[in-house]
Amino acid sequence: MRKETLKTVKRVVIKIGSRVLTGGKDVIDHDFIRSLALDVAQFRRDGLEIVIVTSGAVAAGSKELGLVGRPGSIPQKQAAAAIGQSRLMQSYEAAFSQHRLKVAQILLTRDDLANRQRFLNARATMDMLLSCEVIPIINENDTVVVEEIKFGDNDNLSALVTNLIEANLLVIMTDIDGFYDSDPRLNPHARLIPLVKSVTREIELAAGSAVSSVGTGGMATKLAAAKKASQYGVPSIIINGCTPGTLTQALAGLEVGTFFLPVKGTLNRRKHWIAYTLRPNGKIFVDKGAVAVLSTEGRSLLPSGVSRVEGGFERGASVRLCGPDGMEFARGIVDYSHLEIEKILGHKSREIEAILGYRYGDEIIHRDNLVML
What we know:
By secondary structure, this protein is an alpha/beta fold. The protein has 15 helices and 13 strands. The strands form two sheets. It has an eight-stranded mixed sheet, sandwiched between helices. Strands 10-9-11-12-13 form a five-stranded mixed sheet, with helices on both faces. Helix 9 (201-207) packs antiparallel against helix 10 (219-231).
């Protein structure tokens, strides 16, 4: 199944975790980067386009600041990233140049991808670099990032980049052999799961939320990244990046790590962007009838189905849609602000203009801007 799925792969996102890049220490493992460059050089000869999402900047800069473990404050983290990012790119450039490969640094924040125009600009830049046979090296811009505009972890970033560049495969390199039914560090009887057809709630609970001393993402964030990629129709593989040869074996379709199949009925690029890249600003609660219509008939959300609004947001914002039980079941981009919705909720669409004095349209959220989760 793996070999058949990977036959058509042309563009690959490779995410490298901090523990893989540093060997679990607080310095960059230059030998690993040289080994990676050797592998990527062969992938390029095989006709693959490679994009790398790298961690490690904060870990690389922490030692220079005299810090032990991860920085405890945002200013410390930003300072460590500012020092470490240049050292990280120097190592990549030196290793890849040995194989006549050029690399380019791209630093992103969530705002860069949440803004549709900047999203498209980033995509155009990536496409140009790849067409020039340059390998993009992507990291979160930790030097300036704050909580409101951060991706949270580079696992999440790698999934969003997969959507951004229309990649065919996401490979997540970590320091364990793949996804287990429980934490192998705590349970010696934990079982490696070689194939995941669908990320169920039971699988998510098994992932836990362990965070390493040099990284921000545990297995739960890697599983979430694989789930996001699968929603876009892209398979993922979680492998042990600390084991030599694993990356080459994974791309050859051999049974290493955990392979995640894409789901059926995948989201297009825009709806994936709405569901996973935009940060929701508020909630709209709808009645039972609206839940049924939206879920089964693919309709737009009309004001008559809205029961209440929570949080402040403007027209064009992303919001969560919740049913009578309070559970989120969809996300979408609103055509009216929270103040406007509070005035027209429960009313017919034909009454909007009489209530507000103007009308943008009949829908609170048009079906083209609505994603079922």
